[in-house]
Each structure stands twice: as C-alpha cells, then as structure tokens.
Amino acid sequence: MSKPPTLTLPACADAYRLPTERGDFAVHDARPAGVPRGTALLVPGFTGSKEDFIGVLEPLATAGYRVVAVDGRGQHESSGPRDESAYARGELALDLLAQAAALGGGVHLLGHSFGGIVARAAVLTDASPFRSLTLMSNGKGAISPMQQVRTRRLIQALAVLDMDAVWQEMRKEDAENAADEDTPTALAEFLYSRWMKTTPEQLMAVGRQLTTEPDRTAELARVRLPKHVLSGALDYAWPVPEIDAMAKELSAHRTVVPGAGHSPAAERPAVTAEALALFWELAG
C-alpha cells in the first residue's frame, strides 16, 4: 500500500466532501493562487486513499493546476454499502464521471494502480468530461501472478475475519519480510485507521477485479484523448516491461520516475508532479 510522505495538507489545500449526483465523496482540493490552468482529478488505488497524493498537491498547485484527490466509495472517508455489487467496475466508473461533472468537466484524469483500471473504464464509458488520461503504475490487465496469489489470500481472509484481525495478519507478514520496519508511529497509526475505515466489501470486490481484469488496451487506444503512462523504475504489481508495452500500444507519453516503485506520487512527489504538469501542459 502507498505510504504518504506527510499527513499534513499544504496551505493551498482544503479537505471537504464533494457533492455529486451519485453521493458525496471525501476530497483534498488544492488550488493555485491565480486562475487555474486546468483541473485534475486524482484517483487512488487498492487499499489507498486521497492521502497518497498529498506530496504532489502543492507543487501541482504552484504549477497552476487545481488538483482534487478523492476517496472512492467505501474507501477511507467516503462511505459505501456493505454489498460487493456496489463496487463493480462500471459503478466506480460512473462515480468518476459524476465527480468530473461536479468539478465542471474538462478534467485531467489520473488513476493510480487500481484507480487506473477505474479511470480507463470511465474514459471508455464517456471520454467527453476529460482533457487527458494518466495511468500511473498500471498495466494492461490483471496484476502479476505473484500479486494475484497474495490478493486472493487477502480476499479469503476478509471473508472470515474482521478487519482488525486481517490487519494484524498483514502486519505479521510485512514484519517477516522486513517491509514495515521504518514506518513512523504517526504514519503507522494513519495506515491502520485508513484500513479500519475502508469497507471490507470494497476491498473484496476490488481485489477480485485486480485478479481478473481483461486487457482493454486496444479499446483505449481508439479513444481520442491525450494519454500518459507513468510508473516508477520498478513495480511489483505490473512488470515495467508490460507497462512500457502498454504505453507504446496507446501511443502515450511515457514517464519513468527514477528511484520510485509502485507509488511515485508518494515516493518521489516532486519529480512526479513535474512530469504531470509537463504532460498536462502538452495536453492543453
């Protein structure tokens, strides 16, 4: 899961609930000092939240963009029903279209990891509210075989254990892999709180989609929209060569963020923000 570099919102950003025709969604909304050059909607991935983008809010606002990071339905501070069908890909895509409409349309859409799957689905449903599409740390279809195994284990655990028990099992696995040793206390507390606030049915439904998502690259290539594929130099969810191949098939602008893994916005926010602002300028 993404670990935000800070939990403090910059002065240019506000936290509130964005009303849409499909309900209210918790957002962080960063605005530039002057008239915005454009508006961007940032969509987090599996087990993530709007906080994953905190590090890029200020540099993107400084570059002149209004940037709105959102919690999807059932994710962290956006409520959602205890029903897996509510988190079908098509339902989540309609949520993004409603959010784009609430922001006035003409939105630069960015989806991170699973957020990229939803962003792609939204664009394939109706591209008209969007000025561009950025797929961040996202590949052609389902996640890598190794991650599919881990995700299926998580789904099975969520079906029989409560959220706290599943969290403790995940932490035990991370400790065995030395993956959690440098997490500051405040961040560790936030990650636990975010997990506990997320609806388990959202996690199960999204996990199933990550393990079964078809390759829709050819469909997306036919959409007349500026496209950007951005990733770290390494990625555990989708192999970087697969991400490269997808970018080529999409005739997309390609950015590889050096020193970053699966979460460039959290791991290398300044470099990631610079790349996003450059692409949005090119996209118009």
UniProtKB/TrEMBL annotation:
<dbReference type="InterPro" id="IPR050266">
    <property type="entry name" value="AB_hydrolase_sf"/>
</dbReference>
<dbReference type="GO" id="GO:0016020">
    <property type="term" value="C:membrane"/>
</dbReference>
<feature type="domain" description="AB hydrolase-1">
    <location>
        <begin position="41"/>
        <end position="275"/>
    </location>
</feature>
<protein>
    <submittedName>
        <fullName>Alpha/beta hydrolase</fullName>
    </submittedName>
</protein>
<dbReference type="Pfam" id="PF12697">
    <property type="entry name" value="Abhydrolase_6"/>
</dbReference>
<dbReference type="InterPro" id="IPR000073">
    <property type="entry name" value="AB_hydrolase_1"/>
</dbReference>
<dbReference type="GO" id="GO:0016787">
    <property type="term" value="F:hydrolase activity"/>
</dbReference>
<dbReference type="InterPro" id="IPR029058">
    <property type="entry name" value="AB_hydrolase_fold"/>
</dbReference>
<keyword id="KW-0378">Hydrolase</keyword>
